Amino acid sequence: MNIVKESSSLNDKKIFDITPFTHLDYPGKLACIVWFCGCNMRCMYCYNSDIVFAKEGNYTEEDLYGFLDKRVGLLDGVVLSGGEPTMHDLLPLCREIKKMGFSIKLDTNGLNSDLVKSLVEEGVIDYIALDFKAMNGKFGYVTGSSKYQNFVKTLKFLISSQTEFEVRTTIHADLLQPQDINLMMKELKSYGYDGTYYLQKFIETKNNIANMEKPEKEFDENALEDILEIVWR
Ligand code: SF4
After folding, report:
1. What is the pLDDT of residue 11?
2. Is residue 10 part of a domain?
């Protein structure tokens, strides 16, 4: 396949790694995962700290296109993850991937609302997983970011745009309790979100940003209110 490259930074090693195959990370599709270096958050429980702090990765966009060229017809989609993929100029990259015929899913924390908007409006993103880290009162503590309003802007935009997307939250019971999740569901509902709310439990690893261990507190799932459909992952 002859691919015309549009990006100006093809040779930057912005990609930390590529997972060649997953059937779990893109609903209904066989996909690969592209892990982008860097992040504009510092979530306490983040176990991708090596990716978050990486100044340079192992692969360039050129490498990715070479990899994908050999997967045409074998994979349906590409998951852009990280780190935070919207730290990078994804528009040219997404155009190239779409030209090759793949669907694209974006995993994002929602801070770069302008880029998410551009990607959606250009029609180069097929599905988005948006992380809702915490309500404003805890957002800074959990993520190290003061940009809660950027997340809200992205959320509101996605709701208004009819884009296919999901909202998901990672739960470490020492950081988020059922009453926090109830507030977050009410917040989502108040903006018009009526989809499934995915909750995922903190996975204990030896390596996370705040060296968090297994929660000391219990998380009582029975205290969750019936506001949105909840699916645990
Ligand atoms: S968990 Fe937080 S710090 Fe880690 S990659 Fe995601 S947004 Fe960045």
Report:
1. 65
2. no
Residue 197 in any domain: the answer is yes
Q: How would you class 194 by CB atoms within 10 Å of its CB: exposed for 0-12, middle for 13-18, buried for 19 or more?
A: exposed
> What local confidence, expressed as pLDDT, does residue 204 receive?
87
206 is a domain residue: yes
**pLDDT at 6 (0 to 100):** 42
Q: The domain containing residue 192 runs over which residues?
A: 15-232
Residue nearest to atom 4 of ligand 1 (CA): 46
Q: What separation in Å is there between the alpha carbon of 27 and the centre of ligand 1?
A: 21
Residues framing ligand 1 (Cβ under 6 A) = 39, 41-43, 46, 48, 52, 82-84, 109
Condensed to tens digits (0 to 9), the pLDDT of residues 198-215 reads 999 998 888 899 999 999
- pLDDT reported for residue 144: 98
Domain count, the chain: 1
- Regions of the chain with pLDDT less than 70: 1-11
- Residue 26 CB neighbours (<10 A): 23
Q: What is the CATH number of the domain that holds 217?
A: 3.20.20.70
User: What is the reported pTM?
Assistant: 0.94
**Helices (H), ranges, the chain:** 49-52, 61-69, 90-99, 113-122, 136-143, 148-161, 178-190
CA dihedral sign of residues 36, 46, 31, 198: negative
Mutate to test the pocket of ligand 1, among 80, 109, 201, 202 (most ligand atoms within 8 A of CB): 109
* Residue 174 belongs to some domain of the structure: yes
